[in-house]
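Notebook entry, structure prediction.
Reason for the run: the old model in the group folder had no record of what sequence produced it. Starting over properly, with the input documented here first.
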Amino acid sequence: MKLYYADEFVLPLPAGHRFPMQKYRMLREYLMASGVAAVGDFIVPRATTFTELCRAHAPDYIMRVERGELTPQETRLIGFPWSPEMVERSKRSSGATIAACRAAIDDGVAANLAGGTHHAFYDHGEGFCVFNDAVIAARAMQAEGRAKRVAVIDCDVHQGNGTAAITSGDASIFTFSIHGARNYPFRREFASDLDIDLADGTADDAYLAALSGGLEDLFGRFTPDLVIYLAGADPYADDRLGRLNVSVEGLCRRDSIVFDACTARGLPLAVAMAGGYARNIEDTVAIHANTVVAAKRIYTRQSATVSVL
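New structure, fully documented this time:
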């Protein structure tokens, strides 16, 4: 299973910043040290090209990001200070999802060990998201003739507002987002093909029942050639930004439900890690690692286990 990573391109953040940038390096190191993946499975992606970015974003916005010409308000919305490293990291992370999609179409499954930047809109970024890697990758696959119809299954705890907005009116991309009803973003997009809002404190059984129903709805209405799965770790009960009450085991079951639904239909699947802000960063790393393990087990019929660190 090919695993694309960009943690060598570090986005410098001020001391005390709440985004856990180190989780990406920790995830890769843990997967390697635990034997879940071999050294040759890990691949550094190329940066996304301007042409690829333009399929999802306004050319003027892309150029202002690259030149460091964002306004203070735009920078505040993104939540990261601008730097050349921020630009390179964002382009590499989107490149990783493109590469994971190509590999998934060839091999059945692949993952970007970052990505899931679903709050990036056509002409601006929000919520730690500069470029929308899922839409960029979906449209890259369409432009390359690899997939005509793409489903985005977004299990991050926050609504995929940017993804919904960019793909509004595009019948070739189906957006399904299951998220907390009273969480960020506080101004919702209503262009999703399918939104499931969950009450604060929603626990395993209710969460998984809602997800299963949503997947039945999605596949009853849409037949994709490719699925991009945003496997957020932030529905976890001890996530600082989550507000739900899903256990580590519940998130393992979530991953299996998604993967089983896709394999039953013979669908290639590209995974992006999306959010995760657990009070104990090792919990976030373990949840993301479990997603990779489940993908390998279900798609390649190899068995492995990962527990909370």
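Summary: The CA atoms of residues 228 and 270 lie 5 Å apart.
The old model has been moved to the deprecated folder.
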